[in-house]
Write a structure and sequence with these properties.
This is RAP domain-containing protein. The chain is of the alpha+beta class. It has helices at residues 2-5, 30-35, 46-56, 61-73, 81-93, 95-104, 107-120, 131-141, 154-170, 178-194, 201-214, 219-229, 242-256, 259-263, 267-278, 291-302, 344-354, 364-368, 373-386; strands at residues 308-312, 315-321, 326-331, 358-363. It starts with a helix and ends in a 6-residue tail after the last helix. The model is unreliable at 1-56 (pLDDT under 50).
Length: 392
Amino acid sequence: AKELGAQRPTACLARSALGGVPAQLHRLPRSLRRTGFVSSQPQVPLARYYAVDAAAGSLSVPELSALLAELRADPPREEDEAQGTQQLARFEAAGSSLQRHLIDGELPSRLSLLRSLADLGTLPRRPYPTAKYLLVFLEEYVDTLETLRDGETITNRADELREVLLSYHRAGLAPDRLKLIYGHIEREFPNFEAAGALLPMPAAVRLCHTMLATGLSSPGAVLVLLRAATREELMHVADDSTELRLLKTIEMLIRLDFLHTQEQMPPDVNEYLSVIRSLRYYDRELRRETPLSYQMAFFLRKHGFPAKRMMLGPYPLKVCDPEERINFEPVEERSFRAGLVEEPTARKRRHLEAVGWRSIEVRADQWKELESYDTKAAFIRQMLKDQELLSL
């Protein structure tokens, strides 16, 4: 080991013929033998790998989860370089334990660690090298998908795939090997169903919505999931149900954001999407007033704006003019995770504009600064002038 330490990279660890190599090296997981990825740092010599591993010890899944949660709760601070270095060292010291559990652990434990790593990857500036661990997980995971495990249902598999895709989306990763998951849905799901394991509509809709909303999808996988959804009559779906909201969102995403997918849908699926588009959906949020939405509507009506309510696809419009296709959007104070590609409010505005609406946002923090009746009235008046709407 000493002789190898200064010269040989970790790829040599998989060679069982090496003299003096500890016995546990002969039991390296298949992906480590294939990729040569053992240490939390690439090409770390053998002696150093075992020195780090011995110092760190073998951490259990609960210990690793607690460590990752602690690192996320106390991220490195730019003004405190020593604290950042210490936190990074703690993460790196747990690297070998992370790899072992991500590859050889029970699936629930592996998914739990995957979620924790993805959450850690949402920190600003991404201070921890989480991507390589997520890729190691995926390398092994895709090789286990061909058949259902003992006691596993197709619904379990759909929910599991959804969780995996959400984790990679949170971490901001879209590796090419995710295409193997899309291919698995496209090829194996029809085989599972042919064997009698039918995918229920709610599970199919949840997975399809996740794939489109995250951008981690393929036309073939979307088609398989929509065909599974068509088995349930839409007349049995309540007009305020979660499933109908997801279906309305799927229809709008395909129509506005995934034209390539829409072009590959067969006539029967396109007809199904047209029916979804025509269905009435009611979001209870439409009638739920906030101080911002109530006061906005009040002052807009004072200036002759109709300030009506309506649903547009999956979106509730609390303060709008349907005839002129103008929406005033009350943007409440709400925090979204760091690194989100597109916030929900931005997606809503983009979709409204894509179908010919004007969407004008009023933010809650901005409204709170207006303390009196007169200042709020003046704000609304000026906003209408800026939008050339005062004559309405």
